[in-house]
Write a structure and sequence with these properties.
The complex is a heterodimer. In chain A, 42% of the residues lie in helices and 23% in strands. Chain A is of the alpha+beta class. In chain A, a hairpin with a 2-residue loop joins strand 3 and strand 4. The longest helix of chain A has 28 residues. The model of chain A has no long low-confidence stretch (mean pLDDT 95). The longest helix of chain B is centred in the middle third of the chain and has 16 residues. The mean pLDDT of chain B is 96. Classes of the chains: A alpha+beta, B alpha+beta. At the A-B interface, strand 1, strand 3 and strand 6 of A face strand 7 of B. Strand 1 of chain A pairs antiparallel with strand 7 of chain B, so a sheet runs across the interface.
């Protein structure tokens, strides 16, 4: 079974960039630097770069991304930071579809009442424009 | 939730007397959840091994040993002695963890799950960091691969915080991580 026919495209591997999805570091990116066992990995931010400390973390708390950086087994903070900067992973992730979706989710969660009002008005305006145009097209045949 | 297991070094001796002004010191490595339990275990073992007890002896120091480098993954070998329902057995087990205390926690959980041996029935004879090439267990050896790579075949997504858990959900979860 070659990699091209593999169903899975994201692997737990040294250098895999992952997003923490649970706990106090939720939402932050980190790099898998070593594997403890099938359920836990050693992960490095580094802390000054993405905010994730070097720690043993459960794989259940990670969402794997599409990005992999080239770091050796057990790489330390400096190496990881250089690798992340070289490939500009943080920005690439923000521009990926996954990253964009997360930003939208975040924006939606941070809406205040006025934002929700603006959203309601915008939705109404758009629906109205569509309906008016549709009626026009129906009338003309 | 239980407190973490910590490693203590307890040093104690029989109280000095006229007959024996400088009794020998005994040092013991204890894995316990707090210092009180560490002291208690020290006397439990010393009372069995030597002719001294809490009332006739003194503990000179209790020091906690903190993991020197919790940021590297190590292989720990553990030699145990445990009570099963029908006898006492020796065992050698291996665990992979970043700290010795983490590995000891794994061991107690493992003994409980696999052999129904509760913590009180398990005695740690010796612990040691084992080099990857000297490990004996296949489930540890499978991790010794600098190009290790495996997919997450079946994930169970969960809310990022308890408060976001929904009581009723209209769609079945997606277990494919990609």
């Amino acid at each position: 079974l070659s990699n091209s026919t593999m169903v899975f495209k994201r692997f737990v591997q040294i250098g895999r960039v992952a997003r923490v999805n649970f706990g106090k570091d939720e939402g932050k990116l980190c790099v898998i630097v070593n594997v403890v066992d099938l359920g836990k990995v050693l992960v490095e931010g580094p802390i000054e770069y993405t905010g994730v400390n070097r720690q043993k973390i459960s794989i259940k708390r990670l969402d794997l991304t599409d990005f992999v950086v080239k770091v050796p087994l057990g790489a330390r903070a400096g190496t990881v930071k250089k690798a992340l900067e070289a490939d500009d992973i943080v920005n690439k992730f923000k521009q990926s579809s996954e990253g964009k979706k997360l930003e939208i989710q975040k924006a939606r969660a941070e809406m205040n009442d006025f934002d929700r009002f603006k959203l309601m008005v915008a939705k109404k305006t758009r629906t109205r424009a569509v309906k008016v145009k549709l009626a026009e097209l129906r009338k003309s045949g | 939730k239980k407190m973490a297991i910590r490693e203590f070094i307890v040093v104690g001796r029989k109280e000095p007397s006229e007959a024996e002004p400088n009794p020998p010191l005994y040092r013991m490595q204890v894995f316990a959840r707090n210092e009180v339990i560490a002291r208690s275990r020290f006397w439990y073992v010393l009372h069995a091994a030597r002719k001294m007890k809490k009332t006739t002896g003194e503990i000179l120091s209790v020091n906690e040993v903190v993991e020197k480098n919790p940021n590297t993954v190590k292989n720990f070998g553990m030699w145990l002695r445990y009570n099963s329902r029908s006898g006492i057995h020796n065992m050698y087990k291996e665990f992979r963890d970043t700290t010795l205390c983490g590995a000891v926690e794994q061991m107690y959980a493992d003994m409980n799950g696999r052999h129904r041996a509760r913590a009180s029935s398990v005695h740690i004879i010796k612990t040691a960091v084992v080099k990857a090439e000297d490990t004996r267990r296949p489930n540890l050896k499978q991790m010794h691969n600098s190009k290790i790579k495996f997919p997450l075949t079946h994930i169970q997504p969960r809310a990022s915080h308890k408060r976001y858990r929904a009581k009723f959900v209209t769609s079945r979860p997606t277990t494919f991580a990609g």
